[in-house]
Amino acid sequence: MLAKVKSTASAAKEVAVKKASTLGEGAKASLASVKTSAVEHAVMIKESAQEMMRAREVPVILERLQAGHAVYSQSFASDFWLFLKNNHLIFSLFFAHPKHPFSACERRVCLTCSLALGFGITCLLTLSKDDVDAATLTIMTIMLGGILQGVYDTLLKIFATCSCVQSCPTPIRVIFECCGSVGLIVQFFFGAAICVSGALALQSLFSAEEFNAATWQFFASKFQAWFVTSVLVASLSFWMRRRQQLPPTDPKAYEEWNKTPKPGFCFGNKNKKPKSFLWNKYIGKDKTIEDLPLRSPRYAYRLCCMNLGQDEPLEVPSNTDDIELGAPTDEGLN
User: Fold this and answer.
1) Spatial distance between the Cα atoms of 98 and 78, rounded to a whole number of angstroms
2) Is 83 buried (19+), middle (13-18) or exposed (0-12) by CB count in 10 A?
3) How many Å apart are CA 138 and CA 135, to the nearest integer?
4) What does the radius of gyration of the chain's CA atoms come to, in whole angstroms?
5) Phi then psi for 326, rounded to 5 degrees?
6) What is the C-alpha to C-alpha distance for residues 307 and 285, in angstroms, rounded to an integer?
7) Are 82 and 181 a contacting pair, CB within 8 Å?
8) Tens place of pLDDT for every residue, the chain, 334 residues?
């Protein structure tokens, strides 16, 4: 009887050991499955975070444009075209960098204001046809209207971007950006008022001949403002900026070029940088203009429904560790 009890106990013990072993293996498998799932989830979160960071990351070429850099290659024409693509009122609608802070919506608002003012000025000038001959009126409309519209377009961009205060302390920058928004609204209503006044005045003396003349002069003045006055002013500004950023060959001038200027505007702003700052940061202290590529870098952009171009990587030199990076001045939006 005792032997039978021992045998039964031994069998029960073996069954219990097998069940415990089975349960242990199941628990281990469950734990391994949980660990695998947690690792996969962590990897997915990390990849999502990296994608978000890449989406928010400002490309080097755009950072240089925002900082007002004017030297990208040995070619002035190629660098100037890169500048125009991101700053000209018309060209930037089609060729600007997709991540440019001056958004396409803001550009369209500025374009609408420019068209409204241009049409109003043309209508008002057309009404003075009785005082001057037709040739003089045409020249006056194209030249005077074009210059006024060029100045107006420049002010629109200044108010929309507030580029001169981007390196100032945050409170000052916020104040000026609010003032810029107010200025943009004022300019919008000013352009709308001029447009309505000119249209109503022309309508009171409406004739097909006057309407055709006003329309032709309007397009001529806009062409002159957009593709003559604006381009000439931009080319002069870009040439002066590029000349200032290129390293001088004269040793004394080179020393002055590397000297940090005294603090100026922005109520004691101490973030003033030497003229060599952008060159040293983005090109390198030991580089010369001969080390630059023959043309400016290209980037991918979307025109209508087509994806054009491709991003070309730009490397920041490794010898800029001792350079105080600071905030971009955003002069490129001026």
Assistant:
1) 19
2) buried
3) 5
4) 33
5) 70, -175
6) 36
7) no
8) 555 545 655 655 565 555 545 545 555 555 556 456 655 655 665 555 445 434 445 678 888 887 888 999 999 999 999 999 988 888 988 888 888 877 788 788 888 888 888 888 877 777 766 666 666 766 776 677 667 777 777 777 777 777 666 556 778 778 887 888 888 888 888 888 888 887 777 776 666 677 777 777 778 777 877 888 888 888 998 999 999 999 998 888 888 898 887 765 554 455 578 888 989 988 988 888 899 999 888 888 777 777 776 776 666 565 444 444 333 343 433 3
Rounded to whole angstroms, the Cα distance separating 193 from 191 reads: 5
Residue with tokens 């593709």: 227
**Cα–Cα nearest to 172, from 241, 87, 243, 268:** 268
**Rounded CA gap, 87 and 79, in Å?**
12
Q: What are the DSSP calls for 137-152, one per residue?
A: HHHHHHHHHHHHHHHH
- Sign, CA dihedral 119-125-127-129, equals negative
Q: How far apart are CA 28 and CA 136, in angstroms?
A: 94
What is the rounded CA–CA span in Å between residue 69 and residue 63? 9
Q: Where are the beta strands (DSSP E) in the chain?
A: 301-303, 306-308
The two three-digit tokens of residue 332, written as one number: 């490129």
- Neighbouring C-beta atoms of residue 75, cutoff 10 Å: 15
Report the SS3 class of residue 129: helix
Q: Which helix (H) or strand (E) segment is 46 a member of?
A: helix 2-56
**Calpha distance 307→301 (Å, rounded):** 6
In angstroms, the CA 11 to CA 206 distance is: 114
Structure tokens at 173: 């920058």
**Identity (one letter) of the amino acid at 116?**
A
CA distances from 126 to 48, 204, 205, 316 (A): 60, 12, 10, 54
Question: What CA–CA distances, in Å, run from 83 to 98, 206, 214, 238, 300?
Answer: 14, 42, 33, 8, 15
